[in-house]
From TrEMBL:
Domain of life of the organism encoding this protein: Bacteria
Residue ranges constituting the ABC transmembrane type-1 domain according to the UniProt record: 69-259
Transmembrane intervals: 68-92, 104-128, 140-158, 179-204, 238-259
Localisation: Cell membrane
The keyword Transport appears for this protein: yes
Recorded topology in the membrane: Multi-pass membrane protein
Official protein name in the record: Carbohydrate ABC transporter permease
SUPFAM superfamilies per record: MetI-like
Pfam families, per the entry: BPD_transp_1
UniProt cross-references to InterPro entries, sorted A to Z: MetI-like, MetI-like_sf
CDD domains noted in UniProt: TM_PBP2
Length: 271
């Protein structure tokens, strides 16, 4: 196969894969602009016959979208920043320091990647309930402040950083904290940005833990608010649920559009 034909085949496969991923989102957006009667009559139709923004007006009148959005953004940003702050020294120790049990410690970090949050939520919930932190922001943030995935990503990225940089900093009198946060931090910027994005998206969309730890609107997140749209009125109001999901996904889409090249570099393990 000549190079041009090979290029066209790769582009065709890439476009087909993109369509598979984009088609559900396109259906969600178009459904949000349909009246309920059209949704029930032609649920698979992509083009609204009578486009209307009534579903969006209903979403904003049914739930406090602004409050839920602020809580969700504050929670996701706080978790992502804490994970970066703590993953940097942990990854640095596993990659650049020599101590007994380093391999065992790294093995435990990898093992933690295999443990889902649902396995430990009962003891964690009881701990926060006993401390009186249910329905508070710390209860949403603190259980995820340490990330095994973040430690792994930082450790792998640091493996490609020459030791001479660290030795030179030590000769200049830099402390370990200075080396980690002021010298290696900027070097690992692509990895840290990708860690921030992965963490932000995961916790921004998280439904399970906020459902466990909240019982009122004080710190209720937007995914829980969108789920409440299904329970109001009679029947399944698909167009309103889709409008809520479009609003929910907009910040994530904007964030990825602004920083996608850092995500690709970070996932590829390049510092």
């Amino acid at each position: 196969m000549n190079p041009r034909a090979s290029y066209l085949v790769r582009m065709g496969l890439a476009c087909a894969a993109a369509l598979v991923w984009l088609a559900p989102y396109a259906w969600m957006v178009t459904t949000s602009f349909k009246p309920l009667s059209e949704v029930l009559e032609h649920p698979a139709g992509l083009v609204p016959k009578s486009p209307t923004a009534a579903a969006y007006r209903e979403v904003f009148s049914a739930i406090p979208v602004g409050h839920y959005m602020l809580v969700t953004l504050a929670m996701a940003v706080s978790i992502a920043l804490l994970q970066i702050v703590l993953a940097l020294p942990a990854g640095y120790a596993l990659a650049k320091l020599h101590f007994a049990g380093r391999r065992v410690a790294f093995g435990l970090v990898l093992a933690c990647l295999l443990v889902p949050a649902q396995v430990t939520f009962v003891p964690v919930f009881l701990l926060f309930a006993k401390a009186g932190l249910v329905n508070t922001m710390p209860a949403l943030v603190l259980p995820f402040a340490v990330s095994a995935l973040g430690t792994f990503m930082v450790r792998q990225a640091l493996a490609s950083v020459p030791d001479e940089i660290i030795e030179a900093a030590r000769l200049d009198g830099a402390s370990e904290a200075t080396i980690i946060y002021r010298i290696l931090g900027p070097v690992l910027a692509p990895t840290l940005v990708s860690l921030f994005l992965v963490s932000f998206v995961f916790h921004y969309n998280d439904y399970f833990w906020p459902l466990v730890m909240t019982t009122n609107d004080d710190v209720r997140t937007l995914p829980l608010g969108v789920a409440l749209l299904r329970e109001q009125g009679t029947g399944m109001r698909w167009h309103i649920v889709m409008a809520g999901n479009v609003i929910l996904s907009l910040p994530v889409m904007a964030l990825f559009a602004a920083a996608q090249r850092h995500l690709v570099r970070g996932v590829g393990g390049r510092a």
